[in-house]
Amino acid sequence: MDIYGITDVGLVRESNQDRFLITYNNIQDTLSLVCDGIGGGKAGDVASEATIRYLEQEFKKTGKWVNVQELEGWIYTQLRSVNDEVFRMACTSDKYKGMGTTLVGALITKEHCRVMHVGDSRVYGLLNGEFKLLTSDHNYINELLRRGAISKEEAMAHPKRNYLTNAIGIFNQIRIDVIDVDRDFDALLLCSDGLHGIVASSKIEMILRQPWSAKEKCELLVKVAKQYGGVDNITIVIIQKEARA
């Protein structure tokens, strides 16, 4: 697999509260993550950094999975555990009060691929040539859309369109989405809203479909996000079948 990650502060923010991870266990399964920290001052980057480091440490302890249920169980257990840890930190220190982080990830073995999701960072996929958004944003607007309370047009201008309803460390209990993805995927793209919030999905798709390396695609997507204003931190991980010339 060709895997590459990149993070950039953008053109407006003073600091980068995003983090990403690409790591392997001792049998070469891979865990890739993107986190977008939430909170004032340094609190957001504390939350995203703590989440990344905790999951990296726990993943390196894993070995051969007995079955796919064990793999999925590990995801649920570890995301609940890291939520407990970040929530505890936020509750015991005034400087960390209100901190949290979104998370998207992909755990890939020789036989399986599972995408994990908490918050409003996203995973896009190219699956059998079809471009798909694999995650559903955990925010107030999506809750209203699911209930049919507002139209898509109303959602675009809603004052609470960016309000999160789910994030690691913000709530004592979290919703964890785990998505079964065909292991024979063409490409996966994990990103924070510094990309998907300002670059149209059609533009992301066009770049993801190009016969380029993951590194080239990541770097171009950051450049495009900056051309559109770079108003937030931009973080991307691309996982694809192989490096392409």
Structure in words:
It is a single chain. The longest helix is centred in the first third of the chain and has 25 residues, at 68-92. The two termini are 14 Å apart. The model has no long low-confidence stretch (mean pLDDT 94). This protein has a single domain, classed as Phosphatase 2c, domain 1. The chain has seven helices and ten strands. It is 33% helix and 26% strand. With 245 residues, the protein is an alpha+beta fold. A five-stranded antiparallel beta sheet has the order 1-10-9-6-7. A five-stranded antiparallel beta sheet has the order 2-3-4-5-8, covered by helices on one side. Helix 1 (43-59) runs antiparallel to helix 2.
Keywords:
single chain, 245 residues, alpha+beta, Phosphatase 2c, domain 1, 5-stranded antiparallel β-sheet, 7 helices, 33% helix
